[in-house]
């Protein structure tokens, strides 16, 4: 009997469908600002533990929280601020005891490398030459929330309202500055380093709170119905978090410009 | 809060404005290009047709990237527009119109070309014999005969422009009241966990889309009417 081409197509589709969700995979959702650092960490981790396979998922911390809250199969969550992790805790997604701070960062204002506009203080953003300022959407992007807080405290929030371009995550703000589409943008010091040829740091944004990154395993608190498979992934999550906090993991974060917690 | 200030209605108004402009632009350009491709013989005609159809198959992010690189302040076209005309398209609703026009364009020019090709050449010849000029033949004979196909494409283009997301987000950003269209507002609301806002937005979007479909059915009784005629006959 001759098989219809659809049979082969179906077979291929089915075999592809079986690929995700392999038992040993550890899904790590990390803030966009951790993209390069966590890729590096995952490589080191996999080299150290050949049985492990880390799947990384990057987005704004708020976006990641929404995915987790809607039931995304995430094992580890690393947020760029305490507030997002507080919300995760309030929703019962992580247990307070599981939460640990693993890095610190600074917020900076960057301008295109060839920019001639003088910016020495946040107030200088109010000048006419600055028409657009990229800022992470404060509703879901911690960097945008930190920046909004600084602008609020400097009494600039209303003056700059019409100039602010909301971005989906901090890296998009960096990209807009690098392309010269905006005159300035709020990003982390670690982001600015990545495009040192295209952007320059105008100033470090003064903040009354520290930018510290918490990390936690997801869903371990609901251990009453934990199957053996769940227990295994919980152990794997803890092993990864321990690695991030280990001297080896901290050295990788150092290399990417993050400060110790 | 008054209805006019509600961000949900602002997004709807903006979406209709952007989709309306995009539809008008694609209608004029798509009809012209469709006519050109249907009637004129020139080298590389098939290649041009394929190139113009690309927006249907290319991912919107690819289109968005092309547009950003081309129209951005450092893009060749964007730099020229900025230096010579003082026009900046990135982060403006006009930029959103361009993104929507590009994705919707093939939906007009494809059916337009087919419709023009289906027009009986003898009718045009008859008009010519009766002494009508080229332009008059086009507007009084050819276009009315091809109109149904073009209209079908136009409605599809409107619906597609209304739903445009990827390319728009990349070149127009997401500025509430300026470039945050319905589809982008839905995305933002879900990202921020504002499910109540998202619910209202998707409801409105669905209602608008159903309305467009119903209007399409009204404007183009085409198949249904034909079937009825057939029943009668």
The most extensive interface, with participating residues per chain, is: A-B, 17 and 17 residues
Give Rg of chain B in angstroms. Answer: 21 Å
- CATH class of the largest domain in chain A, please? Alpha Beta
Radius of gyration of chain A: 21 Å
Stated plainly, the CATH topology of the largest domain in chain A is called D-Maltodextrin-Binding Protein, domain 2
Across the major sheet of chain A, the strand order is 2-1-3-10-4
What count of structural domains of chain B?
1
What is the fourth-level CATH superfamily of chain B? MetI-like
- The first-level CATH class of chain B is given as Mainly Alpha
List the uncertain runs of chain B: 223-233
Largest sheet of chain A: 5 strands, mixed
Main sheet specs of chain B: none
Say which CATH homologous superfamily of the largest domain in chain A is assigned. Periplasmic binding protein-like II
Structural class of chain B: mainly alpha
Estimate the strand proportion of chain A: 15-25%
Mean pLDDT of chain A: 89
């Amino acid at each position: 009997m001759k098989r219809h081409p659809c049979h082969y197509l179906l077979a291929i589709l089915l075999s592809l469908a079986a690929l995700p969700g392999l038992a040993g995979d550890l899904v790590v959702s990390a803030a966009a600002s951790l993209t390069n650092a966590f890729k590096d960490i995952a490589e080191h981790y996999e080299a150290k533990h050949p049985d492990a396979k880390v799947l990384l998922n990057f987005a704004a911390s708020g976006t990641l929280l929404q995915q987790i809250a809607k039931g995304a199969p995430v094992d580890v969550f690393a947020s760029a601020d305490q507030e997002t992790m507080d919300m995760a805790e309030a929703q019962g997604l992580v247990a307070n005891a599981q939460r640990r701070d693993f890095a610190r960062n600074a917020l900076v204002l960057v301008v295109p490398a060839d920019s001639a506009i003088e910016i020495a203080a946040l107030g200088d953003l109010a000048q006419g030459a600055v028409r657009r300022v990229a800022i992470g959407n404060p509703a879901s992007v911690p960097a945008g929330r930190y920046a909004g807080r600084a602008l609020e405290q400097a009494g600039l929030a209303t003056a700059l309202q019409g100039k602010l371009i909301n971005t989906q995550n901090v890296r998009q703000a960096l990209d807009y500055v690098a392309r010269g589409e905006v005159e300035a943008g709020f990003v982390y010091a670690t982001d600015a380093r990545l495009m040192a040829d295209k952007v320059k740091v105008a100033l470090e944004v003064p903040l009354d709170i520290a930018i510290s990154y918490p990390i936690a395993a997801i869903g371990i608190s609901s251990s009453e119905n934990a199957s053996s498979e769940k227990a295994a992934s919980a152990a794997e999550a803890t092993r990864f978090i321990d690695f991030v906090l280990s001297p080896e993991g901290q050295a990788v974060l150092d290399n990417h410009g993050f400060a110790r917690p | 809060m008054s209805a006019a200030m509600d961000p949900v209605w602002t997004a709807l108004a903006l979406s209709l404005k952007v989709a309306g402009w995009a539809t008008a632009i694609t209608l004029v350009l798509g009809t012209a290009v469709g006519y050109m491709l249907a009637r004129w013989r020139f080298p590389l005609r098939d290649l041009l047709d394929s190139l113009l159809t690309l927006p249907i198959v290319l991912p919107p992010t690819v289109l968005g990237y092309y547009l950003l690189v081309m129209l951005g302040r450092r893009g060749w076209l964007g730099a020229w527009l900025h230096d010579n005309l003082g026009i900046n398209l990135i982060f403006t609703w006009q930029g959103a119109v361009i993104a929507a026009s590009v994705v919707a364009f093939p939906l007009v020019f494809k059916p337009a070309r087919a419709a023009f090709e289906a027009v009986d050449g003898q009718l045009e010849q008859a008009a010519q014999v009766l002494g009508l000029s080229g332009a008059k033949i086009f507007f009084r004979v050819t276009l009315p005969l091809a109109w149904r196909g073009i209209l079908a494409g136009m409605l599809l283009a409107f619906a597609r422009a209304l739903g445009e997301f990827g390319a728009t987000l990349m070149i127009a950003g997401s500025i509430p009241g300026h470039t945050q269209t319905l589809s982008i507002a839905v995305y933002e609301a879900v990202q921020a966990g504002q499910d109540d806002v998202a619910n209202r937005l998707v409801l409105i979007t669905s209602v608008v889309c159903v309305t467009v479909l119903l209007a399409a059915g009204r404007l183009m009784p085409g198949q249904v009417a034909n079937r009825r005629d057939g029943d009668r006959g």
